[in-house]
Design a protein that fits this description.
The protein is an all-alpha fold. It has one domain (24-111). It is 71% helix and 0% strand. The termini are far apart. Pfam families: Prolamin_like.
Length: 118
């Protein structure tokens, strides 16, 4: 009977360990639907402003804030992992990403509807 209990305990440990390994393999971008929360036009605009040069329109800032900070940061980091962008200075790109985010939070505050006076 003790042998059976040992096998059960071992089986539980194996299942828990495999679950922990699978949890690490989940793509946070896909898990949070980050790829579907912005229009392609705004994705291109934000991308260009971070990885090239360009400005983000107020409309696209609103979409970016709707995307969320987590997705914004995750998408930048994922792009930097792409071999096509390996020659970019990571600190410069992360700084530009933060600047775009900060600018967009200000835009969002400026265009947010004011509370009804009634």
């Amino acid at each position: 009977m003790a042998s059976f209990n040992s096998y059960v305990a071992f089986g539980v440990l194996v299942i828990m360990a495999s679950g922990a390994v699978m949890a690490r393999d989940v793509d946070p971008i896909k898990a949070n639907n980050c790829e579907t929360k912005m229009t392609l036009r705004c994705v291109n605009e934000v991308f260009a402003s971070i990885f090239k040069t360009g400005l983000v329109t107020d409309h696209c800032c609103i979409e970016l804030i709707g995307l969320g900070k987590f997705c914004h940061d995750a998408l930048i980091k994922k792009t930097l992992e792409n071999p096509l962008f390996k020659n970019n200075d990571t600190s410069v790109i992360l700084s530009r990403g933060a600047q775009v985010w900060n600018k967009c939070t200000l835009v969002k505050k400026d265009v947010s509807p004011s509370p009804s006076p009634y």
